[in-house]
Amino acid sequence: MFVAMELPFRCIKHETFHEFLSIVAPSLNVISYTTLARDIYKLWDNEKEKLKEFISQNCQRVCLTIDTWTSSQNLSYICLISHFIDNNWKLQKKVLNFCQVISRTGKTMAKKVEHCLSKWVMVITIFFQQTSSNKFELSKYLEEALWKLNSGRFPILAKMTRDLLTIPISTVASEFAFSTEGRVLDPYHSSLTPRMVEALICTQDWLKRK
After folding, report:
1. Kind of pairing, strands 76-85 and 63-70?
2. What distance in Å separates the CA atoms of residue 13 and residue 188, rounded to the nearest whole number?
3. Nearest to 4 by CA among 177, 201, 187, 178
4. Paired residues of 35 in beta bridges
5. pTM summary value
6. pLDDT in tens for each of the 210 residues of the chain?
7. What is the 3-state secondary structure (H, E, C) of the chain?
8. Distance CA 112, CA 78 (A)
9. Distance between CA atoms of 145 and 174, rounded to whole angstroms?
10. How far apart are the first and last CA of the chain?
11. What are phi and psi of 167, to 5 degrees?
């Protein structure tokens, strides 16, 4: 609930929330802030392992986009997003990391990206390109059933096509990743640690896109 609905943690101490739980789940005990944080981190870790497995089974190549964002507290963040075409010829976009950075210089961001990728145990070719808000024709073309139907007849060609087409598709702007951050980092959540912010944003994205 706190991840999917972006509820502030202070709700667990609110009298109305206690009344709600007593009606819908009277057998549940109200947990503490510490327990809530621990449960969210555990869910984050579990979903991350599922995503690693999904990526390893569904793609040979992953392309990345990196967006920068500044919170209302004037803190800088980068959002690392993976783009790949799965075995069903569906374009996938998955937020990998959402990290606070001390500056937006190329050197600082490169080190942060390298650190993030080391946790995913990935060897990825990174393409830095200007983003666009338009949906590319290639992305629309992949929605046609023809790709999926013929991939079994021409497996090598299909593999090459998936790898090559992922590159231009990955330039599609990732504003979708930032539709959540403004709410997660609102004044009611301003005391959250950068690690908790990343856990909330990434986990919510993974759960929504299952």
Report:
1. antiparallel
2. 14
3. 201
4. none
5. 0.67
6. 678 777 777 787 788 877 877 887 878 777 788 888 899 999 999 999 999 989 888 777 778 888 887 777 788 888 898 888 888 878 888 999 999 998 888 888 888 888 888 888 764 444 444 444 444 444 554 555 555 555 555 454 455 555 555 544 444 444 445 555 555 555 545 568 889 989 998 999 899 876
7. CCCCCCCCHHHHHCHHHHHHHHHHCCCCCCCCHHHHHHHHHHHHHHHHHHHHHHHHHHCCCCEEEEEEEECCCCCEEEEEEEEEECCCCCEEEEEEEEEEECCCCHHHHHHHHHHHHHHHCCCCCCCCCCCECCCCHHHHHCCCHHHHHHCCCCHHHHHHHHHHHHHHHCCECCHHHHHHHHHHCCHHHCCCCHHHHHHHHHHHHHHHCC
8. 9
9. 25
10. 17
11. -65, -60
Whose structure tokens read 């990825």? Answer: 124
Residue with tokens 């057998």: 27
Residue type, 66: I
Per domain, the residue ranges of the chain are 9-208
- Rg of the chain on CA atoms, in Å: 19
